[in-house]
Amino acid sequence: MNTNFLDSVTNFLKKRTFELLGLILVLSSVALAIAFTTYSPEDPSFIYGDRNFEIQNFFGIYGSSIADFLLQSSVYKSFLALKGASQLSKTVLSPTTQIRNVESAAMFALANGHFGRGASLADSMGIVFRDIFGPDGKISADMLAAKSAEYRELGITNSNIITREIRALTDDLLRKADTGSKLNRSELLLKTLQDQSVLGNMTKIYQGGDDLWKIFGYEFEKSKMLNIIKEGTHLDDADKYFREIFSRRFDRFMPDGTTLKTREQVIKETAAEIIKNTYPNYSYVPSLVQNLRRLPLGNFISFPAEMYRTSFNLMKFGLREMRSTDPLVRQSGARKLIGFSSALAVGKVAQEIGQEVVGVSNEQLDAIRESFVAPWNKSGPLVPVAKEVDGDKVVYKFVNFAYQSPYDVIAAPYYAAMTQFKTARAEEKDIDQAMLRAFFGSGRDPGAFTALVQPFVGEAIITEKLADLFVRGGKTRSGRQILSSEDTVSDQAVKGAVHLLEGITPGAFTQATNFARGIAGEQTTYGKDMNPGDEALALFAGIRINEANIGKSMGYQITNFVNSQQEARRLLSKNFADSNVNAETIYREYEKMLRNKFENFGEIRKVFDDAQKLGFDKKFISGALYKLFSKIIS
Question: In what order do the strands lie in the sheet with 545-549?
Answer without folding.
Answer: 382-390, 393-400, 545-549
